[in-house]
Write a structure and sequence with these properties.
With about 280 residues, the chain is α+β, with helices and mostly antiparallel strands. The chain contains 3 helices and 14 strands. The chain has a 7-stranded antiparallel β-barrel with strand order 1-3-4-12-11-10-13. It has a two-stranded parallel ribbon with strand order 2-14. A two-stranded antiparallel ribbon has the order 7-8. β10 and β11 form a beta hairpin. It is elongated, with a radius of gyration of 25 Å.
Length: about 280
């Protein structure tokens, strides 16, 4: 026999087979145990998906937007192609790609998007929280007030923020909007009336439900913007990125990407702006 020839015994081959069988059995047991405890990735993803899409009833009867009540922020002039002709605009929404986030699907670092899914639910409804003694729950939000924006339901306090650090910029190159669990200067916002010529006159007045507004990030003086040239893949399909960036036309007026409406009722508010539209800046990309 050639001296390099290895000898294999039946016992060695049988031992390998037994060990492989044992390992396979352990894997199956581990899989079944995780399934019974609800720890499989697919189970976590399904729970998160269901949690974020849980319906929220918007039933405010107030004429004005009030601190502490649930509200959507809708960019109604933006049209998302291929989605029922984009008739409903797009809504500021929480999105996540991390199944390890909190049980409700929300956590620090969660990206904000503009979604054509505008039916009111956990991921697209927020609470406006005041800063200071004159901004108690139930009091009307005034033009010029400083406030924070938080998810309507979450397992821990979270705040919508925009930061200017390079590492936090989105695919558009502009500061991205995200959720954080620390309350600092970058979590503060204010609203201006959408018509530049009427802004000074509107300051200090309550914000009517359904009014068209510009949502301004106080730390950077930039506006919340729907980035219609940049989409993000989410659990819910492609959605627009939302950033802090001011889009203005040649007259210095904000474009459709910067104009939002607060929605606090499933019925459209009776409030109407005098012309109510910005047809020359409607976007459908």
């Amino acid at each position: 026999m050639h001296r390099d020839t290895q000898l294999y015994s039946v016992n060695v081959r049988m031992g390998n087979w037994v060990e492989e069988t044992r390992l396979q059995s352990e894997k199956i047991k581990s899989f079944l145990a995780k399934r019974d405890r609800g720890e499989l990735l697919v189970q976590k993803s399904q729970r998160m998906y269901a949690s974020l899409l849980r319906p929220v009833v918007l039933n405010s009867t107030s004429e004005f937007l009030r601190y502490g009540e649930d509200a959507q922020l809708v960019c109604s002039d933006i049209r998302f192609p291929g989605w029922s002709d984009g008739a409903g605009g797009v809504a500021l929404s929480c999105s996540t790609s991390d199944y390890r986030s909190e049980l409700d699907g929300l956590g620090p670092g969660c990206t904000m998007t503009a979604s054509p899914l505008t039916e009111s639910c956990v991921r697209n409804c927020f609470k406006i929280c005041g800063i200071g003694s004159n901004c108690e729950k139930g009091e009307p939000l005034m033009f010029g007030d400083t406030f924070t924006i938080s998810p309507c339901i979450s397992s821990k306090p979270l705040f919508v923020t925009a930061v200017s650090l390079y590492t936090e910029r989105g695919v558009s190159g502009h500061p991205a909007l995200k959720l954080v669990d620390s309350h600092d200067a970058y979590c503060r916002w204010t609203v201006d009336y959408w018509r530049v010529s009427m802004r000074e006159e509107a300051k200090g007045l309550p914000v009517p439900n359904g009014a068209r507004v510009v949502l301004k990030h106080t730390a950077t003086n930039l506006n919340a913007a729907v980035e219609t040239d940049f989409r993000i893949a989410t659990f819910f399909g492609d959605e627009y990125e939302v950033s802090a960036h001011s889009y203005k036309d040649g007259r210095g007026c904000e474009k459709a990407q910067n104009i939002w409406e607060f929605v606090t009722s499933s019925k459209h508010s009776a409030f109407k702006d005098d012309d109510g539209t910005n047809n020359d800046t409607k976007t459908n990309k």
